[in-house]
Design a protein that fits this description.
35% of the residues lie in helices and 17% in strands. Strands 5-14-11-6-7-8-15 form a 7-stranded mixed β-sheet, sandwiched between helices. Helix 2 runs antiparallel to helix 3, helix 7 packs antiparallel against helix 8 and helix 7 runs antiparallel to helix 10. By secondary structure, it is an alpha+beta fold.
Length: 427
């Protein structure tokens, strides 16, 4: 018997026994009879009001390790309110700040796209809007003003055309760091001026070969691909504007890795070549659009290969009714967003409005063209590099028709003046 009148067990009072064993002895024989477990009929239930000497002792808490290595206390069972005999409410959700994985983003995109197409509810539309806006990689572009905008030679009919400058860059150079690309850390491997016609029924794609020798503001003359490396988006835009006389409204840069991912997402892409139709998977398509050493005209043929792949991809999208599948659409959107950056004016709202405007656009109304070049190139003095000369006698009149939104009419009136993808088979 202790001094306070409490029975001793092995020389210790009951509180010591509880502290050492947690009140949960594995063998009742180890504890004195007064402290052995009660029978079911003797147990105190949570709803019974207990006296101070009868209260059920709280099970001990176990120390566990969180993923970051910090210790936290975790209770083995919900805490009990001994006054009311009712379990205390627990938080319904645990707060997390974990970043969404790419797989989670894909699932969210699929779910939200499906909700919009099936239910058409405003709430689902808001979710899609938020998700797409959150995944768009924006780059702030100060669009340079064209100093002497050529006066249109024809009265505009309806809405004006929309012009985009689209650059392609190689992730093998940037190591997949799109931010490095945006900062002008490398040359652009592809350059396309893309125009949506004013009536929104046709699309014109003009490739400017990367080796084209042009004036670059502040740097004399050089290959047009150097402009991006010298001054990022702004200098690339001003160089193309000064060359073409076209005011560029939007800027897009794509990582060529997207070619591989998009091809696999579509289950392959068929490209028409001189040897016949060639079905490619992602890896094959990636190599196909990069190669300029096994083709007869180097960079000119590589440009044609890039155009042929884009055309093949568009056929896959329309012929397989991909646009009717919310899951496939969401997958393609996710890939493009993961491997692209656009100017601050391209948002979900802008893209949604534009999509409605071009709803009647089909692959057959897309023109793939290349800037006309002279028969002979030039050797860059002191650098032992070869460059292309643009044939301005053909190029300037064509760009006038481009600015006037008269590309289709010009091509019909001047056949064989502007190189077209359909002129000869792709090597």
């Amino acid at each position: 018997m202790g001094s306070n009148g409490i029975k001793l067990w092995n020389g210790h009072d009951a509180s010591t026994w509880v502290r050492r064993t947690g009140g949960l002895a594995t063998d009742d024989a180890d504890a004195p009879a007064a402290w052995q477990r009660t029978t079911p009929t003797q147990r105190t239930t949570p709803t019974q009001r207990t006296t101070p000497t009868q209260r059920t002792i709280q099970p001990p808490r176990a120390r566990t390790r969180t993923p970051r290595g910090r210790e936290r206390m975790e209770c083995r069972s919900p805490p009990v309110n001994y006054d009311m005999g009712m379990p205390q409410p627990q938080p319904r959700h645990a707060a997390t700040s974990r970043r969404l994985s790419r797989g989670a983003k894909v699932l969210i995109s699929i779910a939200t796209a499906f909700a919009v197409l099936v239910t058409g509810t405003g709430i689902a539309a808001l979710v899609v809007r938020y998700q797409i806006n959150a995944n768009i990689n924006h780059v702030e572009v100060a669009f340079p003003v064209l100093p002497n905008v050529p006066t249109p030679t024809a009265e505009p009919q309806g809405d004006p055309p929309i012009d985009f400058l689209v650059l392609g860059s190689d992730s093998r150079i940037t190591d997949g760091n799109l931010g490095q690309v945006v900062e002008g850390g490398s040359n652009s491997d592809a350059m396309m001026l893309v125009q949506i016609s004013g009536d929104r029924t046709s699309l014109n794609v003009l490739s400017i070969p990367r080796d084209s020798w042009v004036p670059i503001e502040g740097h004399g003359e050089g290959k047009i691909t150097w402009a991006y490396s010298y001054g990022g988006p702004e200098l690339a835009i001003s160089t193309v504007q000064n060359l073409t006389g076209v005011t560029i409204e939007h800027f897009v840069v794509l990582d060529f890795t997207s070619f591989k991912r998009l091809t696999d997402a579509l289950g392959g892409v068929t490209v028409k070549t001189a040897e016949g139709d060639r079905r490619m998977n992602g890896e094959e398509a990636f190599d196909f659009v990069h190669d300029r050493f096994t083709v007869s005209q180097g960079d000119l043929d590589r440009v044609r290969r890039q155009q042929a792949w884009i055309k093949g991809m568009m056929h896959e999208v329309f012929n397989k009714d991909v646009l009717k599948s919310p899951a496939k659409v969401a997958s393609l959107i996710t890939i493009v967003l993961d491997y692209s950056a656009v100017d601050q004016g391209i948002t979900f709202d802008y893209l949604a409005g534009l999509a409605l405007e071009v709803k009647d656009l089909r692959p057959g109304s897309v023109q793939f063209l290349t800037a006309p070049h002279a028969e002979s190139g030039l050797i860059i003095p002191g650098q032992n590099q070869w460059a292309l000369r643009i044939d301005y006698d053909k190029f300037d009149p064509f760009m006038e028709a481009w600015r006037d939104d008269k590309v289709v009419e010009y091509l019909a009136a001047h056949p064989n003046q502007i190189p077209d993808l359909e002129d000869r088979p792709v090597e």
